Structures are given as structure tokens and as C-alpha cells.
Amino acid sequence: MSEQRFSGVAASAGIAMGAMRVYRPEAAAGHSAVIAGSPEQERARFEAALQQVERELNNLAEKADAQGKEILQAHLMMLQDPELRAMVEGSVAGGTSADAAVTGATEQFAALLSSLPDEYLRERAADVRDVGRRLLAALSGRTVGLKLTRPVVVVAKDLAPTDTLGLDRSLLLGLVTEQGGPTSHTSILARSWGVPAVVGVAGVLSAAKDDQTIVVDGASGEVVIDPSSVTRDQFRLRMEEAAAQAERDRAEVGLHAETPDGHRVELAANAGRPDEVALAMERGAEAIGLLRSEFLFLGRDAAPDEEEQYQAYAAALRAAGGRRVIIRTLDIGGDKEAPYLGLPKEENPFLGVRALRLCFRRPELFQAQLRALLRAGVHGKLAVMFPMVGGLDDLRQAKAALDQARQSLTAEGIAHEPNPEVGIMIEIPSAALLAGHLAKEVDFFSIGTNDLVQYTLAVDRGNRDLAGMYQPYHPAVLSLINQVIQEAHSAGKWVGVCGEMGGLPAGAMLLLGLGIDELSMSPSLLAQIRRLVRGTNYVEAQAVAQEALTRGTPEEVLALVQPLLKKG
Ligand code: PEP
Ligand code: MG
């Protein structure tokens, strides 16, 4: 039989080759209709099922790692959710079977989550369905999950998070699913276990049979069933190269990003949620250069209160184990919407009431966040960063708000960190041009190239038609960045980059040459950038950067930097 090729979303890097185990839970579950007993009987069945599932989740949690424990904790909370219980009990009281009531309630919750704009929250619908499925299995006396007896690649339509958690990791070579996205829990778990995974592979299940050979490349998203001997050889070669690279990456995790001629750059990671902090540290991040606080505000019906924010920021600081965590205050607006804030529709949202501009208009929202940040500051090394600062007025108003938060906490006798480092993002050209003034009143700058590029070049960062014009290597952008670095250093302040440019090889080399102190990027990019820095002489990078500043087009800049990239 000839090989069959598929492609999907690369969810967890690495290559796996081996026998396949196809998981079809629907077949095992069956679909027998349940006749409802009396409401009392149905309620008692529901109670018993709740208790059984609670036991199952606690058993899984005993064997799980930190990431798994966190997921199971969330499942336990869903299981104990009073609204879910009320919905089920309401249906049961009306004569519905516990089974149908559970199906109805969990589907309603899952559908609500699926309709949210935030991808991460949409993916949580799978968790609610997982809880519902376990409850249904408990109601009918079935058990759920897949028991592995030999090393296999598991192929499934979708894998519920607790299915994945229940798998014997020592026998799991790889994962392939038809559904799911890169932020589904199965993908998150696969990444944290280092198990290659490709998700969203259309049509793979109908071609898959137990014991067939399958190869999976979790970096490219390729999946091949019944590979030819030529394909096998190609993948074996890739496996050897990837294993050697992973080995080198692991060995280098503790190394500094220091050039051979002794110039050091701090390598930090960007995080979108507190649970990404620990992962970043494992990959060798020396700090968190940007924690976007929007994760707490998006995809929900109301703003998080001070306490919820405090818990989340404290978790991030604890996970960093004493390393600096730069938490950015709210940057809603632009392409990030929170309907509950009731913001009027704007013609040009990226030029509208965004970030600090919103916070200044909603002091109660801003104060709750600033108080939560300062309170959390006692759990680690906090730095507070303000986004979208346009000039001194913005900075002073933001610092005054921070002062107010500090004073209110002091007056109420609430424990807090009174003096965190305070910095700003440089992402509006006016701030770059005024860097000399701003530098005197902050502890650090972090250049947000994602926005700096769009505002300098007047190119919407999200407009696909203009993607070719969105150029981080544009000499106008480089000139602004150069000015910011010079002014920060003249004032004795450090300056980093937390926009995507810092994780691009050419971007990192130019920034290194311009004298950047810190580069913050997605954790998966740290190893490559660390290697590049370690392979490049600072004087050489400086010469290239200075030369680049004299060029007139992005193409000329890129041509100059290209020779440096061979070292990575
Ligand atoms: C930036 O603008 O470069 C940045 C890091 O912020 P965001 O992408 O969240 O706007
Ligand atoms: Mg920005």
C-alpha cells in the first residue's frame, strides 16, 4: 500500500515514528437511551457520579506533573461549579434523566465558551466536554481513557485533556488528532512532556488503522501513514538531526547569551499567561520580559476584580523563582476587545482609546490592576510596565496612578511591594523621539517593535494585504530604535525589546549590534537566538548595525546582516 500524507498544525516539536494506536471513544461509549427514574433517583445517580469523577480526577492528579495538576484542578473546579450543578438539578427536577441533564448542561457551557473570540478560552470548551463525558461514563458504569501496552503514536479525532493525562508517558511516542489547536490542553501537555504532536489533521482518522506505521513531525506539521522506505530514511535523518539539536539546546539552557568577545545580552521570554512562566524558565529564560495582562480581561463577561488579578500575578511571580517578571498593565483596544467595557466603536481602533488611554478613562479599572500588581510584588521580583506611552504626560499620569495605588494600600495596611521597577514600552514614534526626556523618569524601556513598526510606517500590523510593507528592518524603524538605545544608555537606564523583532535572527543581530541590553521573545525561540549571540562577535555586529543605519531600504539592511546569520 502506498504511503498517505497529511498535514496539520505543528503543536509540539519533535519527530516520532512507530506503530499507531487509534482511539475511538465514541465506539466504546455506545449510545443507549436512558429511561429517567424518579427525580430523587436521578439526583442520587448524579451525586454518585460526581463523587466518582472527583475520585478519578484526584487519582490522575496524584500521578500528574505540575502542568497536569493545574489542568486537573481546573476540571475539579468545573465539576464543582454551582451553576453547572443547578442546571443539572433543575432539569432532573423536571423529569429529565441525569444523563440527559448532564449532556444538556455541559453542552450549553461548552457552546458558550466556543463562541468567545479568545482562542485560549474557546479551547476550554474541550475541558467542559471532558468533564461531561466523564460524568456520563460514571452514570452508566463505564470507564474512560486509553490504556497503552507498548510504545505507540496515538491517533484520535480529539483527545480530551484527561485522556491525554491518563496516557502512560513512557509508552507515548507521539500524538495526532483531527481536531484541536495549538493552545488546546493536549497540545500544551505534549509540549510540556516533549512529545511530538500534530493537531488539526483533516481526514487522518479515516485512513488510520491500529498497528500501521506512522511518522509525525511536530515541527513541520507533517504526518505520513505507511511511509515508503525512502520517506522513513528521510525522517530518520531528521530525527537524528533534531535529537542532536535538542541535546545541544538542553546543554546550552544554562549558558548566557554572551558573544565570544565578552558582550552579554539578557535573554528573556514573553508570556501570555502565568502558566507559561515556568515553561519559559525551563527553556533558559533569564527573566520574563513581557507578561501581557490582557489574558485576564479577554473573553469574559466582566472585568476581573483586584483579588483575582492579585492571585494571577502572584502565581506568575512565584513561578519565576525570583527572576524579574515585567507585567504590562492593560493593553485593551486596538485589535483586542472586551465588550463588557462598553467601548464605542471606533473608525481606527489602533489609533483610538487603547491601553493607557483606556485606563486613564477608567480609573477604577486601573487602580484595581495597580493595587493587585503591587500586592503581588511581595511574591517575587516585579517590574511594572506601561504600554502605549506617547510622551511625558502619559508617563507622569501613569506614575501618579501607581502612587495612588501605593498610598491606598499603605493607608489600608495591606502588604505590598512599594518600589517595583517601573518602565514603559516604546511603541509610539513620539515616545521614541522623546526617549531622552522619558529615560530620566523610568527605570527601563522595552521597545514594542510590533506597534513601533506599524505606527512608524503607517502599516496596519494585522492587514494581510499590507504584509509585505510591514518591515521591521526599515531604516526608519532602525533609526528610531538606535535613538532609543542611545538615550536610555545616556541616562544610565537599560533597554530591551519585547516585540517579535527580537526573536527573529536578523532582528536580534541588528539589535545586538545597536547595543540592546535585553531581548524578550517566545520561549521556543530562545535556543536559536542564544546560539546566534554566542556565535557572533559584538564588534562585528556593531559594525553591521552602524552600516545598516546608513542604508535607505529594508532590502539593503537585510543584505548587510545576512552574513552574520550563518553562525546560528
Ligand atoms: C509590541 O507592540 O511590540 C508589543 C510587544 O505589544 P503587543 O504586541 O501586545 O501590542
Ligand atoms: Mg504593543
Q: What does it look like?
A:
With 568 residues, this protein is α/β, with parallel strands linked by helices. It has three domains: 32-139, PtsI, HPr-binding domain (Enzyme I, Chain A, domain 2, Orthogonal Bundle); 146-248, Glucose Oxidase, domain 1, CATH 3.50.30; 252-565, TIM Barrel (Alpha-Beta Barrel). 49% of the residues lie in helices and 15% in strands. The strands form two sheets. It has an eight-stranded mixed beta sheet with strand order 1-8-7-3-4-5-6-2. Helix 3 crosses helix 7. It is globular, with a radius of gyration of 26 Å. The relative contact order is 0.09. Magnesium ion is lined by residues 387, 427, 448, 450-451.
Topology:
Layout: E1 4-7, E2 9-12, E3 15-23, H1 25-29, H2 39-63, H3 66-79, H4 82-93, H5 98-114, H6 119-123, H7 125-139, E4 152-156, H8 161-166, E5 172-177, H9 185-193, E6 197-199, H10 204-207, E7 213-217, E8 222-225, H11 229-252, E9 257-258, E10 264-271, H12 275-282, E11 288-292, H13 306-319, E12 324-328, H14 356-361, H15 363-376, E13 381-386, H16 392-412, E14 421-426, H17 429-433, H18 435-439, E15 444-447, H19 449-457, H20 475-490, E16 494-497, H21 505-514, E17 518-521, H22 526-534, H23 538-548, H24 554-565
Parallel strand pairs: 3-4, 4-5, 5-6, 10-11, 10-17, 11-12, 12-13, 13-14, 14-15, 15-16, 16-17
Antiparallel strand pairs: 1-8, 2-6, 3-7, 7-8, 9-10
This protein binds phosphoenolpyruvate and magnesium ion (MG).
